[in-house]
Amino acid sequence: MVSFKRARGLLPIVKYFRTPLALNDLNIDRTFLQQVNLKPVKSIEFTFNPFFSRTYSIRHVSTLLISPRWRSSNENCIMRVNVRSDKFPPQMQVVFINGNILIVKTENLSDREVLECLMTECSKFQ
Fold it and tell me: CA 16 to CA 74: how far, in whole Å?
């Protein structure tokens, strides 16, 4: 029972090639989320296989972006979640208003890195 309590405090994904100081950078705080602006986005499609081992980041990002609080920056943005049962790697496909398409393969990325990628592309359109 003691080992179970000790394991509960660990991160869900262990990053082997990061220093312990960099692990704090993977956490998403409220000030980071307040910078999310979905105005130039037309649609976002999350595709993942739930039986694949590295789907934590895309599942966490999809639950964050689908929530009404962060979605209020663009009410017309269409969000789809495709759950596949084949060996398809997890990815996020973002279609912008001008027709550009951004595909983010989230297999080896943390949830913060996925959001940073989305935010940098959205900031180019403003």
Answer: 37
